[in-house]
Design brief:
With 103 residues, the chain is mostly helical. The protein has helices spanning 10-13, 19-32, 35-55, 71-102. It is elongated. The protein starts with 9 loop residues before the first helix and ends with a helix.
Length: 103
């Protein structure tokens, strides 16, 4: 089995770093009124709860906490939602600036 790169475990080892995208997407949702950014903030929040539960061994016990196979689905999903939120947030901000200039 190939070795998994260490950078993939950055958020597993330091779950409080997950607060960074939560703050970014919450601010983007507030500023641009983008529902997709709000969904991204909620998704990152749920992931933070999951990681903190795994760290505290609430969702697992012993060696089961080391297995992170659900992350093979979670990371791509978070990446997709995050990219969609960034693009839609940009479009909302751009459209709001254009409509403000035309008035």
């Amino acid at each position: 089995m190939p070795e998994v790169p260490k950078f993939l475990y950055l958020l597993v080892d330091a779950p409080l770093l997950i607060a960074i995208p939560i703050v970014i997407f919450a601010a983007l949702a507030f500023w641009s009124r983008s529902k997709t950014a709000a969904v991204a903030a909620i998704a990152w929040n749920l992931y933070l709860i999951y990681e903190l539960g795994m760290k505290a061994e609430e969702f697992c016990s012993g060696l089961n906490c080391v297995k992170r196979t659900p992350l093979y689905g979670v990371y791509p999903l978070l990446a997709l939602v995050s990219m969609l939120a960034l693009v839609q947030g940009y479009v909302h901000v751009r459209d709001n600036r254009r409509s403000g200039r035309l008035r």
